[in-house]
């Protein structure tokens, strides 16, 4: 199966068929409303505004698996994002991205692009200190490590990059521009 073969639940009780994104560049992001990385919504929305007309789609998939940082209903999450960050990109139903209850799309994304490290910086150091207590084997498995992990999908449906939440958003933007 490829990227376009998947569907994800939307916030209205339906499904979003990823075939609708064929020919577009897609950034898939597991998000949270109460995380240190939540301000990335601002830069995501700026990218969406700048590049949507050129073929960028951002797929916002809230997840509450990381320290319970996405409380609330889908409606409350959507309200938070639109009021605080004026987000206009599609937001899906809150789901699990790891474990037995993960949605199939995330199993696929992680098979295509595994974990490659956090890079440098204060937040990277914080995650490197914290994660061994949660998952001693975290460096060797492809699981999502935290909120705001991003997968970049090219116009042909290939998963071409994975960005951990610690990746500078300027680097993400540069990769999106190159894919467009």
UniProtKB/TrEMBL annotation:
<dbReference type="GO" id="GO:0034599">
    <property type="term" value="P:cellular response to oxidative stress"/>
</dbReference>
<keyword id="KW-0575">Peroxidase</keyword>
<keyword id="KW-0560">Oxidoreductase</keyword>
<protein>
    <recommendedName>
        <fullName>Glutathione peroxidase</fullName>
    </recommendedName>
</protein>
<dbReference type="InterPro" id="IPR000889">
    <property type="entry name" value="Glutathione_peroxidase"/>
</dbReference>
<comment type="similarity">
    <text>Belongs to the glutathione peroxidase family.</text>
</comment>
<dbReference type="GO" id="GO:0004601">
    <property type="term" value="F:peroxidase activity"/>
</dbReference>
<dbReference type="Pfam" id="PF00255">
    <property type="entry name" value="GSHPx"/>
</dbReference>
<feature type="active site">
    <location>
        <position position="35"/>
    </location>
</feature>
<dbReference type="InterPro" id="IPR036249">
    <property type="entry name" value="Thioredoxin-like_sf"/>
</dbReference>
<dbReference type="InterPro" id="IPR029759">
    <property type="entry name" value="GPX_AS"/>
</dbReference>
